[in-house]
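Researcher: Good morning. I'm working through a list of sequences from a screen, and I'd like to move beyond sequence-only analysis. For each chain I'm collecting a predicted structure so we can compare shapes side by side. This is the next one on the list. No need for commentary yet; just the structure.
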Amino acid sequence: MPLDFTAIDFETANPSNASACAVGMARVRDGRVVATASWLIRPPAGHDVFYDFNIGIHGIRPKDVARAPGWAAQLSRLTAFAGSDVLVAHNAGFDMAVLRAACEVTGDDCPPYRYLCSLQLARRTYELASYRLPLAAAAAGYGDFAHHDALADALACAHIVVDAAARTGAADVDGLATAAGVRISQIPVRTAPAVLAVA
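Model: Good morning. C-alpha cells for this chain:
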C-alpha cells in the first residue's frame, strides 16, 4: 500500500477541547501532498468565548468566525475530505480530543478515525532539543511556516511523516508506525447509553 494519510490541525477559541475555531488538512497520496483544505469554524454554543491567550496564539477573533458555519454543519465537510484515511497530527491526542469533544457537545457521531501522532514519530526519528512542530518540521526539511495557522501546521505535520517514512524505508503508514515503534490508535466508537426495558 502507498503512503496515504490526511494530516490535520485544529485551533481552539479557549481551553475547552470543544471550542474548535479553525481546521486545516493536507491529503497525502503516495508520499506527496495532493490536496489541502482549511476553514474557520464557529465554536459550539457554551464553548464559543475567545480567550486572549488563544487569540494571541492563532490570531483568530470572534468577528472572524461570526459568519462561519458551526461544527455540526461542517463535520461532513471534514469527513468528506479525510475519507477513510489515517489522520495524522502533531500531539494527536489534542486534535483527536477536539474532534471528539466538539461532536459530543453538538450531538454528532464522532467518526472512529485511526490516527498517528507525528510528535511521537519525531521523537523516534530525530535527535532534537525540542520536538515542537517548528523544530521537528525543520528537521524534516520543511522550514519557515506560519506556526498556529491550521493549514500551515497540517502541512508541516505531513512533511514530518513523509520524511520519517523515507528515512525508515516504510511504504505505508502502518509500516512506518511499526518501523518507528509508535502506535496507530483509534477514536473509540461512541455508543448510545443502554435503555432498560420496563416490565
